[in-house]
Amino acid sequence: MSIATPVPRLVDQFQLGLDAPICLTWELTYACNLACVHCLSSSGRRDPHELSTAESKAVIDELERMQVFYVNIGGGEPTVRPDFWELVDYATAHHVGVKFSTNGVKITREVADRLAASDYVDVQISLDGATPEVNDAVRGRGSYATAVRAMEHLDRAGFRGFKLSVVVTRHNAGQLDAFKKIADRYGAQLRLTRLRPSGRGADVWDELHPLPEQQRELYQWLLAHGDDVLTGDSFFHLSAYGESLPGLNLCGAGRVVCLIDPVGDVYACPFAIHDAFLAGNIRDPGGFAAVWRESPLFLDLRRPQTGGACTRCSAYDACRGGCMAAKFFTGLPLDGPDPECVQGHGATALRVADRATAPRPSGDHSHAAGVRSAPVQLGIPTARARRPVRACDESPLNGGSR
Amino acid sequence: MTESAPKTAAQDATLSDALVEDELLVEEVSIDGMCGVY
Amino acid sequence: MTAFDAARTWRLHPQVSVRPEPFGALLYHFGTRRLSFLKDRLLLDVVRALDGRLSATAACLAAGVPADQLARYERALAQLAAGDLLRPIDRDEVAG
Q1: CB of C75 within 8 Å of any CB in chain A?
Q2: Burial letters for A3-33: b for 16+ Cβ neighbours within 10 Å, e otherwise?
Q3: Residue B29 and residue C43: Cβ atoms within 8 Å?
Q4: Relative to the CA of C9, which of A33, A69, A175, A345 has its CA 20 to 30 Å away?
Q5: What's the 3-state SS for chain C?
Q6: Dihedral, CA atoms, A381, A269, C25, A11, nearest 10 degrees?
Q7: What is the separation of C-alpha C45 from the centre of its chain, rounded to a whole number of angstroms?
Q8: How far apart are CA C56 and CA A89, in angstroms?
Q9: Dihedral sign (CA A174, A177, A181, A182)
């Protein structure tokens, strides 16, 4: 009798990469009607070199050929692109599923009806506070109302199971039950994701990231809610507490996922918009497929990673050293602990790290002048000054009293 | 691992538990279950 | 939930996309939005053999599953069926 062949763990298979991503994030535009303080893509103003409609359709054709199952379309605010619906329809007609992230600004009743009628388009509404006070402090005056209106329309249109996506911060970590109630009320599925020090998030991370005790409570809460609450696998570093959360529990960057940005740049992940994680551009010969399969950066990421200092820790097998982007933008070495390491090794490392020389996010598409719905700075200390790309690009969220 | 004595029922059970775990040919995950996507 | 009947004829749900991989395959169900991983190529061959004319058992054998592994592969098919990736075909239904 032959012994059943042991099957290698998936996590080991995937770390070596695949011939095509399983899914990916595609930021359609840097334009946005909002100016959220923690925006991971530093969005606000459209870039003059954004992909045309034709170029975007060519990307979709490639994704279809590669059998990428689905794209998460975001931005900026993707619905402000005039060709947004044309591209969504083109994707679904070409066997690429779509979920798009939105602040809800364009989700009218008519749009909601149309979405509810489509089988292959999912919607994700962003909200970072269960109350207007907490939410609008981060996302801007009126943004809570906009999100709720969008959810009301989707609910009334009969769209069951759209996503309500929350970035967990120090100020909303105590509102998890309230978020669940909101999601339940509108027939949505709650999604909690991790705040990374990416984009404008680099400036507010110290003040906004959850405290250690909040992290532990969050972990317990997620465990208790199981598959009911999504996480985008963004809390895999919390697996070091014990039982793993649902999901692959590994960093997918450059291995099973990546980002295509509005000008066609391909990054390892949307939280790592920096030259160090730039794999190529889809406008180069060979398009997206060539970048995915041949870029030196991705090939490097797909080699077995040394955990460095972390391999000595008993929790390493669970947490895999945490999030690359979180380490990078807090100035920590990539072969060391995650800044939010649940064992506290990251906090120790941060104390001796030179934060002033930490890498800065590449590119800044933030609004130059005041935005109508500028975040109300309630309860959030003034953001640390950022070095603007050009003097006239000073974000209104900068400086103030220092 | 060397075995100097015949396997006990308990050892047998442990071995087949290990086989069952390695045996799973299908794994399911949510499409949301990959880190690095919005 | 009724037990998986390996004697019935099964076929892949029409909303499932199959993507072969070196280690096996990725299956994505556009209706349920669930991702399944087949962790060996032989199981992929079995799934491909389920064209709506063979029973699950027959498909396993046709794909080359050794007799002593049959139960293991039928369990895998049961898992896929539980996730709606496989649909049973009734005797009077025409496949395809």
Answers
A1: no
A2: ebeebeebeebbbebbebbbbbbbbbbbbbb
A3: no
A4: A69
A5: CCCCCCCCEEEECCCEEEEEECCEEEEEECCCCEEEEECCHHHHHHHHHCEEEEEHHHHHHHHCCCHHHHHHHHHHHHHHHHCCCEEEECCCCCCC
A6: -60
A7: 9
A8: 37
A9: positive
CA–CA dist A159, A143 (Å, integer): 21
Cβ contact (<8 Å) for C69 and A13?
no
ipTM of the assembly? 0.89
Q: How many CA atoms lie within 13 A of A231 on its CB side?
A: 28
CA dihedral angle for residue A304, residue A307, residue A308, residue A310, rounded to 10 degrees: -170
pTM: predicted TM-score of the whole model, two decimal places: 0.88
* Per-residue tokens: A309: 């200092």
Q: Tell me which chain A residues have a C-beta less than 8 angstroms from the C-beta of C40.
A: 5, 7
User: At residue A170, what are phi and psi to the nearest 5 degrees?
Assistant: -55, -30
Amino acid at residue number C96: G
Q: B 1-20 residues with CB below 8 A of C?
A: none
Angstrom distance (rounded) from CA A24 to CA A71: 5
CB neighbours of residue A380 within 10 Å: 17
Return d(Cα A393, Cα A104) in angstroms, integer: 27
pLDDT in tens, A243-274: 999 998 889 999 999 999 999 999 999 999 99
How do residues C7-50 score in pLDDT, each as one tens digit?
999 999 999 999 999 889 999 999 888 999 999 999 999 999 99
Check A25 against B30: CB less than 8 A apart: no
Helix axes C56-63 and C41-49, enclosed angle (nearest 10): 130
Cα distances (Å, whole numbers) of residue A129 to A62, A211, A296, A360: 38, 17, 40, 27
The 10 Å Cβ neighbour count of residue A313 is 17
What are the DSSP E strand ranges found in A161-314? 163-168, 189-194, 259-260, 265-267, 278-281
What is the distance between the alpha carbons of residues C28 and C93, in angstroms, rounded to a whole number? 25
